[in-house]
Structure to design on (502 residues):
């Protein structure tokens, strides 16, 4: 959950926080007349668009677990009447109270769900959220004029949470077009049309409250936040600008009750549209792939690397079979630009890479040990099923009674067979293993764990505790205040952590 307190992220629809700002008379700026009076009526606009917004009804047959009598929920139930075996009413009560057939086995039951969608092509192409139709056996599209059509699934993508449907209408449908969400500003008016709680053709109006929101729902989060009222059933519906263009797909809300509290999130059209086009053409996504594991550049890490400010994406690992390796990218490099686009923070990079055409050659600007370098990478296609980076180091033998070193709130040892077995380290793991973390230390705060392996200190490889001590002394003499450690866990996953040297 990205937001704790008592709020919930809900995917059943996307559903303002006002601050009073005091200013002296000299600094007050008169607002535009429209901002003071509110927007003009949107009646004409909504009338033009409402027929393109649809209600999506899905049904799914859920198989019963005949070994589970409580059906896996907490719903209070009346007790089953105790009847003598063979009673003429036994079969009736089994079916009524336990949904069982005459043989005492539970029967599959049918569940239904409602959501929203919108037509993007008069021929019958409809867009909605993936979670609206996920696992559905039947999909039915209900139009504003009361007509209904069965839909088939052309393709879906869980990471961006979009799905593309196809219906065969007797005549061309009313359709809407996408607008450029990158041009939307905070404070712009936005209008949502959908089917909250099954109430069709509901129009709500608000503003764009924020951009580029990360709600931890997937790797490509960059939601538009809106205070237009959005509730359960709005999922998959469109968010319009005041020209009638679709700038987002309403996807999630934050709510402690399930109703709108003015915190709704819409997947921007700039993110969704390329995925939708791929689903229409291929029935699947064809994303670009760089073949690196990345992490954010914190203030501590930026200081340890000699950077003026925290920016970019720090490479923590490079896939041996990915395009980054032959291009010369290495762990410890900070990607500052990708294909001409600035990487202001880590999560900018995955979206840019994913949207890059496969086989395109792009320039990547990196920072390596204080110097900027440009590398050329040929973007490959992402294998959606397997993107893990595996360790590629060779086994290193160490003495069975290694030297223990204490530094930076850590006790460290060379890797022995005993420690390798104890901490379930990979056979090819090499470096220095952490055997103790001091309570209250910076190392504990940075979540360094016993069993983690220190692979590098200050961007230099370490093979034993003496290497660690030596490298720390070198960093201190050079005036460095933060030591950048590259750590590996038992699964071989790499990450960087900066620890203060004082």
């Amino acid at each position: 959950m990205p937001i704790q307190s008592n709020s919930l992220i809900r995917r059943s629809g996307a559903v303002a926080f006002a601050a009073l700002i005091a200013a002296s008379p000299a600094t007050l700026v008169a607002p535009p007349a429209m901002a003071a009076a509110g927007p003009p009526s949107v009646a004409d606009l909504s009338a033009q668009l409402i027929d393109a917004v649809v209600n999506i009804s899905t049904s799914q047959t859920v198989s019963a677990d005949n070994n589970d009598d409580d059906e896996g929920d907490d719903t209070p139930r009346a007790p089953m009447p105790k009847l003598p075996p063979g009673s003429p009413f036994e079969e009736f009560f089994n079916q009524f109270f336990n949904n069982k057939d005459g043989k005492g086995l539970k029967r599959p039951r049918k569940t239904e769900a409602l959501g929203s969608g919108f037509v993007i092509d008069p021929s019958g192409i409809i867009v909605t959220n993936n979670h609206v139709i996920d696992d559905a056996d039947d999909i039915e599209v209900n139009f504003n004029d009361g007509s209904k059509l069965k839909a088939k699934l052309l393709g879906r993508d869980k990471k961006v949470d979009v799905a593309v449907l196809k219906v065969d209408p007797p005549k061309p449908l009313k359709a809407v077009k996408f607008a450029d969400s990158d041009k939307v500003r905070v404070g712009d008016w936005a209008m949502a049309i959908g089917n909250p709680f099954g109430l069709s053709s509901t129009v709500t109006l608000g503003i764009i409250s924020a951009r580029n929101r990360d709600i931890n729902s997937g790797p490509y989060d960059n939601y538009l936040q809106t205070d237009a009222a959005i509730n359960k059933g709005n999922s998959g519906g469109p968010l319009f600008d005041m020209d009638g263009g679709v700038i987002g797909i309403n996807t999630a809300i934050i709510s402690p009750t399930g109703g709108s509290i003015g915190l709704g999130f819409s997947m921007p059209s700039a993110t969704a549209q390329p995925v939708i086009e791929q689903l229409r053409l291929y029935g699947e996504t064809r994303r670009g792939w760089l073949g690196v594991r990345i992490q954010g550049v914190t203030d501590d890490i930026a200081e340890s690397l000699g950077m003026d400010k925290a920016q970019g994406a720090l490479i923590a690992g490079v896939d041996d079979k990915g395009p980054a390796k032959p291009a010369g990218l290495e762990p410890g490099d900070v990607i500052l630009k990708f294909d001409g686009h600035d990487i202001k923070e880590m999560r900018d990079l995955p979206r840019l890479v994913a949207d890059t055409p496969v086989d395109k050659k792009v320039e990547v600007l990196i920072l390596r040990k204080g110097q900027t370098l440009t590398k050329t990478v040929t973007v490959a296609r992402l294998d959606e099923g397997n993107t893990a980076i595996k360790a590629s180091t060779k086994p290193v033998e160490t003495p069975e009674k290694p030297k223990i070193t204490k530094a930076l709130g850590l006790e460290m040892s060379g890797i022995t067979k005993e420690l390798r077995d104890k901490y379930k380290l990979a056979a090819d793991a090499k470096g220095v293993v952490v055997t103790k973390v001091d309570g209250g230390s910076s190392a504990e705060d940075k979540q360094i764990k016993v069993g983690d392996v220190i692979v590098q200190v200050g961007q230099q490889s370490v093979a034993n505790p003496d290497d660690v001590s030596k490298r720390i002394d070198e960093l201190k003499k050079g005036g460095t205040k933060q030591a950048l450690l590259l750590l590996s866990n038992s699964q071989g996953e790499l990450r960087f952590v900066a620890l203060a040297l004082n």
Notes: Residues 1-8, 12-30, 66-80, 386-400 have pLDDT under 50 and may be disordered. The first helix runs from residue 33 to 37. The chain has eleven helices and 29 strands. The radius of gyration is 28 Å.
